[in-house]
Amino acid sequence: MSRIFVPSAGPDSWRQLLARPDMHWAVGYSARTVAHSWEAADEFPPEVQAILYPVLGPVELLLALPEHKTPLPGARRDSQSDVFALGRHRGGLVACTVEGKVDEPFGPTVGDWMRDASPGKVERLAYVCGLLGIAECPPDVHYQLLHRTAAALIEAERFCATDAAMVVHSFSPQRRWFGAFEDFAKLFGLQAEVGVPAAIAVPGSRRLVIGWVSGKAEYRLK
Question: What is the DSSP letter of 174?
């Protein structure tokens, strides 16, 4: 994977980074919607800033990498965040992975993903759960939420960031799949609320923040 990145020329620059641009780059779909939202802000979008602020104070966006891949041990595929953002706040840096959603689900549950699991999958799940301080993961939790949150911690270590965050950036008026996020938060004894950050105690000294934010509906039509 190249470590050299070029500046964006606008939302269409994000299209070429998708695994299947012909299928995933369409009006009303998360990849295109997230691209327009973040490009319009040229900073953290206001709703993302708002969920980081109560914990970190104002956060300045230093860089944002669309479709950023974070390697994980075991299985072959990396954890690919819709956006990886590195921000600076008064106490240090925050590494933030962003999962964009419109109507798309969070993929398979842990139970489905681990059915007839290879040794690599067993290794990966154990690694992710270890990072998050989870002794045993219920089978009905969605695996995507686990590895996307673990990716935030991995990137925080890589960039020597003091904090990590995983944000679901939803553009669904019906808040589709929020129940899956609620179940994920319950793993840590937390009650999820839209637009409200939840701090998770994980192994090590870093703070970890998770949250669900609602983006502006206008970007679904771009």
Answer: T
